[in-house]
């Protein structure tokens, strides 16, 4: 419970930590108080103790309804009556598949509005591939999915293979992958799967589709998505100091951070599809080989320049001069530049190497010779050494020096990056972009998983004091979250796998509750508990007994989300009317006790899919595959889940329609209403061309009678018959509107209307 | 920010919607008690001096010693190393490089400004020049993010988004926050005006002002059928359909809000088109501003300000135009592209009595080094006539909106390298701007991911010395 005293205390403590010694004594007192409060809180906080089982109260057959009834009774609420059967159907299809219902589905249930029929419908929808597509998108909010890495200066910033993560999500939801497995694969598939081309490796996209912005920030992003994503816990707040309100320490943060810091991401993930089946694969392979050859040559040229005597001589001369005249890097740069395309880093390495090995006989002799050589002949003397060096046998003095790691002559293809200058890097970037473009766009490019692996040797965990990496603390044994036990991760197993196991462990009081709550929220439109933060700032949810009951049943089912859906959706609560007794508004206007259905707007994806479904453009048969730019009309057949998401340049359409910005995890979407959304419906090429397409659809065009046409459109777009007054209103409008454009214009307005956007 | 009580919500519904500038969206009025209230903007904490902001953004980093911070010592030391230690720069730098531009005193205040900004200089007595600005790193991206979003690395909402959130819109028919850049975008593109975790409605609306066709500038502003009667006819039907739906749904405020959004959209088409139509300006005004994209932007901005747009950014151009690594003489051409327009803009605002309540801010993401940049293959042209980045000390100026005119705040060292007197960090600038707008930078918060966030995070102090 967050009393205002606790708030004030927290504010003082917060402030104190950021001010001077003068207030330190007050701060210490306050910190101690906070400590006492925090440790007291940790034990009793509802989300940190295991779910408490209970017998569903009497009064309703479905436990969901039973718990709700009990809570409503306590607040003197009476629940709304059931809505009509057609409304149930719409809610179910939008919740489960994100698509409008079919006429058959509507008829079946309105003819026979029984619980049995209802459950049959739920099963039918859970079995459709469209279910996986819908629910993958929900999880993509959690996983901050994007098809680009973010800002990448002028380089191609796309993730050619982010889509394989989405494909995996669709499959996981459709197969009803047990949740613990779902969790573990996303954290450690590489440590769990045996086959190196196992399609489940794509699950690691959870870690790798995030924003990349330097090692530190990339790791931080991953700490955040893991802890908020799976446990609604704000561990990322403890990056620079212990958490201000929750019992989370910087050691907790850096335990996880240090695991991520020990990841290596291979430049190319494993192929997980069947490339040989693809007729374009051969062409792709050839083009890739061409690019790789170019890249190798460019790098080899750099190495050759270092090693070939003629140019090596220049480097040696410059190095000698830099030692003799004590040049700084600025001077070296400009002198090297005067000679042509000579690289600062090579000269600097030579300078260092020659100084370190000044005693070595051959070098000592040479350096002495250079001392007595006239300035205009230094080059010749340097050339002598360079030639000698090039011809030296491996067991000679020079030969041994040549393979010394610090000697520029030892640098091979794997280390050429050490000596590349800005221009080399620019050229390299262009080549990398070309490769990325090929991988992303060529139809023959096979799917790859965006995997990670552990480094060969794990470095120890250290806290960065005040979050500053230049200020590392002492090594400590990385451990599980302190407030959930804090056990050190065991030896003999990857700490990452241990972390995954701890998160997925049913004994973890958070993980299952969090997903159960998410599923509820995605079904109902609002949650049982605030999904953003299950820490002590969130007081005990009024419906905790229900949440706990669902969580325990979820665990017992082995983490079956589909089973959870069945329990939730089969309830009466899901089928209540959207208006109830007026008296309820005083006690619970926000409907936090679910005494009615809360009308809410469909999200962007469901909205666009509905439009395309009703226009006849949507192709439901192609499941999975690469992302597409949905502003292009070629994409009008694709479900919105397949939209190309560029976190660096998120199209304004997405922003206007509340797609959460994928720079970070989103616990829930906001719902805003802004004129830009209306402009989209009034003026966007997309809506207009789809309206024209529907108006010209053969099935529609062949209908002669205006009233019949209106009826057809209502059935198509709103899944119902128009009322008499609607027929009249629309009929009048049609007869007074321009014949050449009125049907498309009408369709456009039907799509713009509130009924199209709000689920009753 | 206290948790709202029911009393906070007893308002005329229309009034509430209006005050929230439509940004709060479809929250059912009663549902606000338990929904996430962080989406509801606040009214000013105290009496504002400014009501709106224009940020003239000289992207790339204009050099202070060539514009607003004269350094005679550079003449003395030209070609010699300067006796300053420990100021690491992004690229190798060398000896002092004197300014090729002459400085002069202007106005009653005697403010010294270089020949590059003579038109701006006519308003010297209105300018508050801050010579002691500091940022964190001498690189464009983190500095742009810091100047615009208060954090160099993390994804945070922009200053304009915070202001829009804080004050809402004075005119729902136009976007509340507009970011104009001719011919492309600055480095980091839309991140400079991002809303991040604030609702997307607070994101800046980007306009490419090199596009002459006005209604192509805002996405979907233009009706492809270009037939107003036809659209009006459509909207009449829509209104009727929505009205019926509304009546059968207990006049749900969400539905009303959406109905209203169509009316706003319709008006936005007309009003935005009108606002951007600088052809409507009399010839003498257009001549006062001069030619070119920046002039056009400034005129547009003035029209938008008159119509209640809250926050406008005017970028100099695509990429990083002011980034004169190679030749500081390039500043001459750059200043010529904007000085006349800026001078005219200030004159225009004054004429219309707008300057008092409009805070104008000029500057870039950092400044430049008083020492010359050395050749670096692949990075620069290899000549020695330009300046590298400098975050240790740089200049911005403000005018209007409650700042002291004809005033200099702070100073850099003898060479114009680092701020030495009254250093003002970007966080302080932000705190001060918010304060001028009547917002307490510590109280303008948004709850996200377990804590309250603010533009200045845990930094920033209001610098009262620059306030009139």
Short description:
The complex is a heterodimer of chains A (760) and B (468). In chain A, 53% of the residues lie in helices and 2% in strands.
Characterize the structure shown.
The complex is a heterodimer of chains A (760) and B (468). Chain A is an all-alpha fold and 760 residues long. Chain A has 34 helices and six strands. In chain A, helix 14 (309-324) packs across helix 16. The longest helix of chain A is centred in the middle third of the chain and has 27 residues, at 281-307. By secondary structure, chain B is an alpha/beta fold. Chain B has helices at residues 13-19, 72-77, 118-121, 140-149, 159-167, 228-247, 253-276, 283-289, 293-306, 330-351, 426-436, and strands at residues 52-57, 93-96, 103-106, 111-114, 127-134, 177-181, 205-208, 311-315, 358-363, 367-373, 387-390, 394-399, 407-409, 411-412, 419-421, 424-425, 446-448, 451-453. In chain B, strands 1, 5, 6, 7, 8, 9, 12, 13 and 16 form a nine-stranded mixed β-sheet that branches. In chain B, helix 6 runs antiparallel to helix 7. Classes of the chains: A mainly alpha (760), B alpha/beta (468).
